[in-house]
Amino acid sequence: MAATRKYLKTAEMAFSAFFSDGPLVLLDYLMRLLRVMILLALWRLVLDSRGAGATDDPGLSLGALLTYTLIAQVFAPQLDVTTRIEDAMWEGTLTGRFLQPMGLVANFTSELLGTWAMVFLTFSAPLLLLAPALGVDPRPASPLHGLLFVASLALAATLGVAVDFIFCGIAGAIGQNIWLIKYVRTGLMTILSGVLLPLQFLPWGLGDVFAWLPFASMASAPLRVYTGTGDAAWLIPLQAAWCVALWPVASWIWSANRERLAFHGG
Amino acid sequence: MAASVAGAHRLVRRWLFFGRLDALWMIRDLGSFAGYAFSEGLKVLAAIATMLLLSERFDGVGPWTQPQVVFLLGFAVTANGMIDDLFGYNVAYISRRIGRGQLDHVLMQPQPMPLTLLTEGFSPAAGLPVLGTGLLLLAWGIGGTAAPASPLWFALLALNLGASCVVILAFAYAVGSLAFWAPRAAEEINSSSWSLITQLRAFPLDGVRPALLGGLLSVVPAGFAAWYPCRALLGLDHWRPSVVVTPLAAVAFALVALWIFRTGMAHYLDTGSQRYLSYGHRR
Q1: Min distance A4 CA to chain B CA atoms (Å)
Q2: What is the pLDDT of residues B184-241, one digit of tens each?
Q3: What CA–CA distance (Å, rounded) separates B213 from B205?
Q4: How many Å separate Cα B196 from the centre of its chain?
Q5: With contacts defined as CB-CB under 8 Å, which chain B residues touch A201?
Q6: How far apart are CA A259 and CA A251, in angstroms?
Q7: What is the ipTM of this complex?
Q8: Pick from A35, A174, A177: CB nearest B199
Q9: What is the pLDDT of residues B240-272, one digit of tens each?
């Protein structure tokens, strides 16, 4: 217990600091809620105009698609992990992190868990409760799919932390503005992860190719497991394989480049 | 008459000056330029990819044909590019300048504040990737739609594009003015307000419930960023005066934003900013 105390304390500090900038954080919630409502309306518009909510994919009904969209927003922080490392690099506060009595990954991950707990309580849980009013069934395809989703989401988040460290490590290595690297990462996630547009809906068979990439393992895989629109026996091992492959890369990039980082602060 | 000619001459000279500075900044080294161009290109692609791929897969979105969706995306990206070109360097993200105390830099210049805000953010080189992509999409969309490509129609297109920019900027300034009263907490509020507009502007809002749609045309005017003017220009809205609704809305939003900004300025002139410590770092 004593060994985990420092991590729990870091998480608690992140949890309690969530509203430190005042209630303006609620504007982000408003944005997310608006976006989910518009996306749900968009799917109905697209699929209803084709007749009775039909899709070309027999496994992806309108109902499953709406659940996919809602769950993507409920677990958005876990499906596109962003630690505060880019802010710390930009603000120059990363130097202070190196002095704290825990590893850098553990430090940022503990902080992330605290933030996630607050977001879950203040946004995700209310959105799940609101789902019937939005005309969406938020339940997983079956209890088994629900259990498998927990494992898949954990792997997705673990992979997300590795990818976040890899991109920030690259920014340090090539000396580029951290926000340019962030734009690249966000762009790749939007297009390749399936978090907005399910990969099954991509034209020209692109989805079959993108499904093999780590970005799909970060978002599309858990969502397909939850909605029962993908084969968990293939998706979860692929996620695990990407974790095994990318964590050593993340570790190497940081080891090789941490002394090249320059902080200006201010 | 002579005064207005002199004013226009001064405006153009300022734009040329800041345009040159922007170009020099962009090409300061090949690595930075390539990194910026690549990331901006990918950012634009990501913003439009969902709707573009969706319309390709389903041959349109609801009442919107595929070329009409391309036109919608082109309109949204072009308006974004125009704002990037004319109001870069945090002029559009005014909450950052206010919150960081940088409005003092504007106030101390020997010229009217509106002239500074109108020219200081001129960044044709930095904004080129976005504006160029938008214009290409717009041309592609116009080529595929049955839009009456007459001089009058192009004039209405230009008017609506300008009006959309005004609506978006007015929203940014109205929200960003919160930083006059809460400089620290609201410094980044324009990041949220811009995300709100940019994430919602690319969607056809036809299927949205009326109450929500009303909100998207008033409280958060994302509907005027592309959807409403494009519906009007493409004839999807059969009410003929709809082509002037966005310009009229732009006037209304601009007046509201101006009032809020002036009220905030009056407060700022009393209190000033205390965001910077004496040795230069931000609090």
Answers
A1: 32
A2: 777 777 877 787 788 778 888 887 788 888 888 888 898 999 999 999 999 888 787 8
A3: 7
A4: 12
A5: 53-54, 57
A6: 14
A7: 0.72
A8: A35
A9: 788 899 999 999 999 999 999 999 999 888 887
CB contact under 8 A, A44 and B216: no
- Contact assignment for B53 to A22 by CB distance below 8 Å: no
- Touching B: A residues 160-179, CB under 8 Å: 174, 176-177
Interchain contact, A24 vs B42, CB within 8 Å: no
- What's chain A's average pLDDT? 83
Of B174, B152, B178, B145, the C-alpha closest to B73 is B145
* Residue in the structure block whose two tokens are 């497991």: A225
Question: Do residues A65 and A215 touch, judged by C-beta distance below 8 A?
Answer: no
Alpha helices, DSSP H, located in B59-183: 66-86, 94-99, 103-107, 113-119, 124-144, 151-176, 178-181
Please tell me the pTM assigned to this model. Answer: 0.82
At A139 the pLDDT is 92
In whole angstroms, give the CA distance from residue A164 to residue A80.
9
CA separation for the pair A26, B178 (Å, rounded):
15
- C-beta atoms of B61 and A174 within 8 A: no
CA–CA min distance B113, chain A (Å): 26
Question: What pLDDT, in 10s, does the model give residues A177-186?
Answer: 777 888 888 8
pLDDT 10s digits, B5-14: 887 888 899 9
A101 lies within 8 A of chain B by CB: no
Q: How far apart are CA B264 and CA B32, in angstroms?
A: 37
**Residues on chain B touching A34 (C-beta within 8 angstroms):** 196, 200, 212, 216, 220
Query: CA-CA distance, B176 to B264, in Å (whole number)?
Result: 10
- Chain B residue closest in CA terms to A174: B31
